[in-house]
Prior knowledge:
Layout: H1 2-35, E1 42-48, E2 51-54, E3 57-73, E4 78-83, E5 90-91, E6 96-100, H2 103-132, H3 137-163, E7 165-167, E8 172-174, E9 184-185, E10 190-207, E11 219-224, E12 230-243, E13 249-256, E14 268-274, E15 281-287, E16 299-307, E17 313-321, E18 323-328, E19 331-336, E20 343-347, E21 358-360
Parallel strand pairs: 1-21
Antiparallel strand pairs: 1-20, 2-15, 3-10, 3-14, 4-6, 4-9, 5-8, 6-7, 8-10, 10-13, 11-12, 11-14, 12-13, 15-19, 16-17, 16-20, 18-19
Amino acid sequence: MAKRMVLMLAVVGLLITSLGFVKFKQIQTAIAKGGSFQPPPTAVTTVVAKQASWPATLDVIGTAAAVQGVTVSADLPGTVARIAFESGKAVHAGDVLAELDTRQERAQLAAMEAQRDLARINLDRLRQLVKEGVTAQSEYDTATSQQKATEAQVGEIRATIERKTIRAPFSGVLGIRQANLGQYLAAGQAIVTLESINPIYVNFGVPQEVAAQARVGRNLRISSSDVGGVKLTGRVTAIDSIVNEGTRNIQVQATLANPGGKLRPGMFVHVALSTGTGTDRLVIALPASAINYAPYGDSVYVVSDMKDPKGNTYRGVRQQFVKVGGSRGDQVAVVSGLKPGDEVVSAGVFKLRNGAAVLVNNQVQPGNNPAPKPEDS
């Protein structure tokens, strides 16, 4: 019985040892394969770097703003007795827009004018009596004071009546009416907006490193696809005295003629600011998707033939730092860091690293149009 037990234990031990050896060899083989594993190449699209003529302009986005803009409101409280304008119409400075009820003030004016006239008559009478020595000079002085006081009160009531006639402070275009006939308005309550839009301002920001190009007097072109591709020209008329700490941009203001009021305050427009060089630059124009932006520097990935540790040749990428110099449409200008003929990854840069293998597939390319015209969706 003991021999049989010993034999069984020996067989089981041998079986366990055999299984352990087989498993060890399997793990050893897997580790060896893992060490030599190469990830599959990343699918990317590429574009060949070519020199392009880049306009000597700085392209930014601006916002149209009225030269003068105000919300016309009631100076004094009262009930609207007359509305003398139509929404959206042009008006001139001094045109009557609305009138508040002034019946009470006009009654007070009539009573005060009567007191003024009486005070004037009394003053004339006392003047004669003083000359004749019948009345004391003090009575004449009192009458003079009363006459001046009534004149001042008449002027005050007339000013109140005038203040209840709301006029356009300057020429411009009215907005939508915000008050109705018979409505009671509190002091300062809005009646209608008024904007002076010809000429019009365009405000935009430029990076601090190119702020020197935005000098007062520089010419610029304004375009907007929202109003039928309107194109206008103007000049830089003011530059802010401070740089925005959040964006590191400096605010610039341009003034331009706006015939027909095509541009409206608040519209976004495309601004092409002349840099003053007068000649176009030669740059490498790449799709915006090719640029890998980072705090430590902008870069692209250049495709070239590389060798792995075993000496095998493969198509891989190297990271190349570049200096960009503005954008237009789908393109970004690369000023330095690339040379014509370099094959640059145009889509898929976020998946890459230095030395990564790539598989080029250019069946679908990202946009690379300097003046794209996307269709309405």
